Amino acid sequence: MMAEERMRETRAVPEGEKRMTTEHMAEAPMRGGMFPAWRSRISWGAILAGVFVAIAAQLVLTALGALIGFGTVAVTTVADLATVTTSVGIWTAISAIISLFIGGWVASRVSDSMLSSTGIWHGLVVWAFALVGSIVLGVFGVSGLLGFAANAATALRNLVPTGVAVSPEDLRTAATVATSSAGWFLLGSLLGLAASVLGGWLGSARMSRAEVMRREEEMRMRKAA
User: Fold this and answer.
1) Tens-digit pLDDT profile for the chain (225 aa)?
2) Vertex 136, ends 133 and 141: CA angle to 5°?
3) How many CA atoms lie within 13 A of 153 on its CB side?
4) Are residues 127 and 199 in contact, defined by beta-carbon separation less than 8 angstroms?
5) Minimal CA–CA distance to 29: which of 222, 221, 220?
6) How many domains does the chain have?
7) Does residue 27 lie within any of the structural domains?
8) DSSP for the chain, written as a single string
9) 70, 91, 118, 219: which could form a disulfide with 113 (CB 3.0–4.6 Å)?
10) With left for phi above 0 and alpha for psi between -120 and 50, is residue 78 left, alpha or beta?
């Protein structure tokens, strides 16, 4: 009887899964993608999709911000730049939160993350790649995620040419602009991280490890029946 049951189980399990022992199946629930969770918890294809979606959403929101007037005021003095930096910083932080939330959610859904922690990891990695990608976009002159800090620095250099005497008031305002840009960048980065992680968590099935293992065991038993 035992031998017959083993033969039935072997026929029920697909060829690609025969190499996995019963212990592996109990300890390593499968997720969407090429590898089971015990080999890789990250689906890099899903990460890439999430990053592209996040950057695309950010570009759309940046265009929307320009359409409604954020940062379109003519900057002719350092004082003007200080005002524009604040408004652009607020809008950029808001758009980063929205776009990174969408990117984290997409990555988690595409990866078919079962565990909450797996979805969170996908959101975290999307945030990191999007942040680095924004720097690359900035090199080519494209305003990426939170790229307004570099834009503010460039505008400040243009307003204060080398070799020209600068008033103490302009120097204080320039220092305020630099500090404000760094502050908005830090705030946008942290809020974007939280949004991306939240999107990854919501995009997952939000199942506990014990629940996933129980479902895998039920599937294994159904295949063996």
Assistant:
1) 444 444 444 445 444 444 443 444 444 444 444 444 444 678 999 999 999 999 999 889 888 887 776 655 555 565 666 667 777 778 888 999 999 999 999 999 999 888 888 999 999 999 999 988 887 776 666 555 555 555 555 555 555 554 444 566 656 766 676 777 778 888 889 999 999 999 999 999 888 778 878 877 888 888 887
2) 125
3) 10
4) no
5) 220
6) 1
7) no
8) -HHHHHHHHHHHS-GGGTTS-HHHHHHS---SSSS-TTT-S--HHHHHHHHHHHHHHHHHHHHHHHHTTTT-S---SHHHHHHHHHHHHHHHHHHHHHHHHHHHHHHHHHTT--BHHHHHHHHHHHHHHHHHHHHHHHHTT---TTTHHHHHHHHHHHHS-TT----HHHHHHHHHHHHHHHHHHHHHHHHHHHHHHHHHHHHS--B-HHHHHHHHHHHHHHHH-
9) 118
10) alpha
Expressed in angstroms, the distance from the first to the final Cα of the chain is 13
Angle (nearest 5°) at CA 51 between 180 and 132: 45
Which positions ≥6 away from 183 have C-beta within 8 Å? 89
Range of the domain at 203: 43-208
Name every residue whose Cβ is closer than 8 Å to that of residue 153 and which is 6 or more positions away in sequence.
178, 181
81 occurs within a structural domain? yes
Q: Is residue 141 part of a domain?
A: yes
